[in-house]
# Entry
Amino acid sequence: QVQLVESGGGLVQPGGSLRLSCAASGFTFSGYGVSWYRQAPGEERELVARITASGGRTTYADSVKGRFTISRGNANNMVYLQMNSLRPEDTAVYYCYSRNYWGQGTQVTVSS
# Structure
């Protein structure tokens, strides 16, 4: 069955960095685009970044442009989200999404 498993979340100080990973299985990963979403407490889930199936095109929310980078490795069915210059407002549960499936999420907390 289709599975998306996120990892790499944690507690980081403002200005710090984290790299999230999403491991995909159960489908032809290289044929689908993948997105990262996030949801803060009391807020709606929002799109953070998206990458096409080939990895040739990426899009970002305005709030993370220039700080976050999405990438993928089709050889190992992985998608990454490199997050730099983290801010308290980046605190949220981050979810991987592809082919109408969601991962379980990984918590990112930015706090001093």
Summary: The chain has no helices and eleven strands.
